[in-house]
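Supplementary Data S3. Sequence and structure tokens for construct A.
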Amino acid sequence: MKVKFWGTGAAEGIPCGFCGCPVCQEARKKGGRYQRTRAQVMIDDQLLVDMGPDTYVNANRAGYDLSQLEHVLITHSHCDHFYPNELHNRQIEFSYDMKYPTLYIHGSQNISDMYYTFMAGQGQYLIDQKRVGLNVLEEYKTQDVGAFKVTSLPATHGTGKPFVYIIEKDGKTIFYLNDCGTLKDEVFEWLSKTNFKLDLVIYDCTHAMRNTLTDQEGKYWSHMGQPNNIVTRQKLTEMGLYTDKTISVETHFSHNGISVGYGDFAPLAEKAGFICAYDGMELDI
């Protein structure tokens, strides 16, 4: 599978639009890998994971034609990951000659509910026109999503029914562990009973070097930092889900993190055996 990191920032991006902190000022000055749009990835040019407010810009920047897209997988309902207002432009007499007239949005029941909330009561016409389809996924169940098999697992996050995903295609397996906090014990227990062999694990690293389980009395419980990712990786390894070829990537960075600027964090990630993702990064697994 080919994985393209369209965006690698948290909700506010880097730089944050209204912030003058050293991290944001450095990003404005240096550009390139120091700047991050809201997190989303494209897999094999067929499956977009999350659809935030930067999707239009990210698609153009990646040279991707959204008229060729059929499936979007949503982790949770925060607007940096699910911002469906752009879908109004898929209506009849607004968009033409799409390869797939229906764009299917896959996620928990909360995603289907929030679709109508975001669309301010005007979302049904897109469903009736078959320009948008909503597919509800269930936790601990595997469903076909286009050419992929997707297993939905409950995430630790501050929304209704957030998911992390195991994504399989052509004998390769990705664990998309983002945007969330440390997994609950019940999820680790379920994983321990599976036979998954992970080729790529994409970790939430919102707070960079902060341990979100101990700092600020658990204030950051719904996100992770590298100390938490190291512990999670060790658990997955002990369960036999890691192989000697598994790739570990950290993404979804906030300017509020510790040592979060690209130049500061990238060597720390490499030292710990992770790849520090950046906007536009591509991996073949």
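Construct B, processed identically:
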Amino acid sequence: MPDMKKYDLILDALQKLLEEKTIQNISVSEIAQRAGIGKGSIYYYFPSKDAVLDALIERSYEKPLLTAKNLTMQTDIPPFTRMAMLFQACQSSSVFIKQNSTSSDAESAQKFAFLHHKYLSHVISKLKPALTQIIKQGIESGEIRFDYPSALAEIVLIVLAVKFDNSLLPSTPQETEETLRGLVALLEKGTDVASGTLSYLTLAPYIS
């Protein structure tokens, strides 16, 4: 049975190394040394360095993704309220990337490009099924009118992930707020709900 303590030591070691250098410049030997274990132990738990990174990203987003999964079962809560809660989970899931990309210069942007790609792919692919299910539940209850729930979920998550990651298209807080307001307006019109219905629910977590 895998030793979860050693498993977490490996992930912790990679996370600390990512604060100092790019993933491309980190070796399996360095991860093992930082974790205080033998190099062979790394390969007992992971087939490659990329697999260690994937596991680190997954661990970093475990709580928000669990929240998203639980929201799909809470059908007593209105769908748009659950969507807002899921958006909040999407925002908090970007914390790991922000911790590993504190500089805004070009060199830093290039340094963490691989991490950003991993982040965007993970968040969108993992949250999309939950958001799609919530939208479908809203359609079935008559609270949402839309013919393509999966496409809507993907569009919303792409916008949110890009804005919260803030590396692909760097934005000021004001620009992010404007984009989110535009997203809310499109959601309201596209799902045939009254203007203003979603503004507080969707924007409250991000706008002071």
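DSSP finds twelve helices and no strands in the chain. The mean pLDDT is 80.
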